[in-house]
Design brief:
Layout: E1 12-14, H1 15-22, H2 26-34, E2 41-45, E3 48-54, H3 55-67, E4 68-69, H4 71-78, H5 82-90, E5 110-111, H6 112-124, E6 135-137, H7 149-161, E7 168-169, E8 179-182, H8 183-192, E9 198-200, H9 201-208, H10 212-221, E10 227-231, E11 234-240, H11 241-250, E12 251-253, H12 254-260, H13 265-272, E13 294-296, H14 297-304, H15 311-325
Antiparallel strand pairs: 1-3, 2-3, 4-5, 6-8, 7-8, 9-11, 10-11, 12-13
C-alpha cells in the first residue's frame, strides 16, 4: 500500500501504532494527518481509509512533547508545592504556553529548558552575607507566615528581578527548594511592597450600591480592572482601589446620572443623542435587559460644550463681569 516491503517501508507506522508509541488517541492523530497538521500519508480503498506516519515525523513529535512539561511535572522539577508554584507562575517566574503557541500534539504548558534556566539563574545569584538574621526557604514566603498573596507575588518578582538575592543554597535539595534567604530582608521587602488595598466584588457592591452582577460585567468587559485572588481551590476577583479610581475618572454609570437627575435611563440617553454621546454596553446576557451601561466622562464634557451658550462662553462672560467690577 505504501510501497515495496523494504527498509523504507518499515519506517512507516499506522495511525494506531504511531498513537500507541506517542501515547495519544489514534483518532486524534489520524485526523491531524488528514487535515495536514501532521505530515503523513492517507490511502483510500473504497470506504476504508488508511493513515500512516513516518518514523522521522514521530521522532520530531516525541522530541517536542519531551521539551514541554505539564504543571505537575514542572512543579516537581522545581520541587515546590502546588500553591507556591501558582504564585511563582503568577509572578512571571515561568511562562505558561497556550495551545496555539505549542507544537502539535504537545500537551505540556511549560518548557523544561526555561525551568532549568530560572533555577540555575537564581542559584547563580547567591550572595553570602556575613550575618543572616534567620535563613528561610523560598517556600517560607507564604500565607502561613503572615504574608498576603499579593505581597508574596511582589516579593517573588523582586527575587526574579535580582532585587532580592538568595543568601545560601543547599545542593542536596533540588530545584528551588535549596535556596535560602535572609528573613529580615524578606520582612523588610514585604513592608516596602505595600500594594493597593483591594475590594471584593461584594464589598464594592455594599459601599457603592452597585449590583454585584453589574460590577462583574464591567470587569468582564475590561472597563474595571480586577485581580484574581485564590484561596485554596476557590477563586474570586478583587478590585484594587487604584483601578477603581481610574474607572471613576473615566466612566460614569448611566444609572447614577439618571438617579441624580430623577429620570430614567432611556430618557437620559435620548436627551444625549443630539450631542452624539453614545453609551458603552458591557457584556450582556442573551435575552435580558441591558444593565451596567456607562458613559465616558470626556464625552459628557464634550457634549456640554455643544450647548448654547457654551460653558467656555459663560466662563468668558463671568471673567468680563469680574474685570468690569474691578
Amino acid at each position: 500500500m505504501f510501497g515495496p516491503d523494504n527498509a523504507e517501508a518499515m519506517q512507516w507506522f499506522s495511525a494506531a501504532e504511531a498513537a500507541r508509541l506517542l501515547g495519544v488517541a489514534p483518532d486524534i492523530l489520524a485526523n491531524l494527518v488528514i487535515k495536514q497538521a501532521v505530515i503523513g500519508r492517507v490511502h483510500q480503498e473504497g470506504k476504508s481509509r488508511f493513515v500512516a506516519i513516518h518514523r522521522s515525523t514521530l521522532d520530531q513529535i516525541a522530541s517536542a512533547r519531551a521539551e514541554y512539561l505539564s504543571a505537575t511535572e514542572a512543579r516537581r522539577r522545581l520541587n515546590v508545592s502546588k500553591v507556591f508554584f501558582e504564585r511563582f507562575v503568577q509572578a512571571g517566574g515561568l511562562r505558561r504556553y497556550k495551545r496555539d503557541e505549542r507544537p502539535v500534539l504537545v500537551a505540556g504548558e511549560f518548557l523544561a529548558t526555561e525551568i532549568d534556566a530560572v533555577v540555575a539563574q537564581l542559584i547563580k545569584r547567591v550572595r553570602k552575607k556575613a550575618r543572616v538574621s534567620l535563613p528561610i526557604g523560598i517556600q517560607d514566603i507564604s500565607v502561613r507566615h503572615g504574608i498576603s498573596n499579593a505581597k508574596i507575588v511582589a516579593v517573588l518578582q523582586d527575587i526574579l528581578q535580582g532585587t532580592i538575592c538568595p543568601t545560601g543554597h543547599v545542593p542536596a535539595l533540588p530545584g528551588l527548594a535549596g535556596l535560602q534567604f535572609d528573613q529580615a530582608e524578606i520582612e523588610q521587602r514585604v513592608r516596602d511592597n505595600n500594594p493597593d488595598v483591594a475590594l471584593s466584588v461584594d464589598h464594592l457592591a455594599q459601599i457603592s450600591g452597585w449590583k454585584p452582577a453589574v460590577i462583574k460585567k464591567w470587569i468582564q468587559g475590561g472597563y474595571l480592572n480586577a485581580v484574581e485572588e485564590k484561596h485554596g481551590k476557590a477563586k474570586r476577583d478583587v478590585v484594587p482601589v487604584s483601578a477603581l479610581v481610574r474607572f471613576l475618572l473615566t466612566y460614569v454609570p448611566t444609572a447614577e446620572i439618571s438617579k441624580q437627575l430623577e429620570t430614567k435611563t432611556p430618557y437620559l440617553l435620548q436627551s444625549l443623542r443630539p450631542a452624539k454621546i453614545e453609551c458603552i454596553v458591557p457584556p450582556q446576557e442573551a435575552g435580558g435587559a441591558h444593565r451596567g451601561l456607562l458613559l465616558r466622562s470626556a464625552d459628557l464634557a464634550r457634549g456640554a460644550q455643544l450647548r448654547k451658550p457654551t460653558i467656555r462662553d459663560l466662563a468668558n462672560q463671568m471673567a468680563q463681569v469680574d474685570f468690569i467690577q474691578c
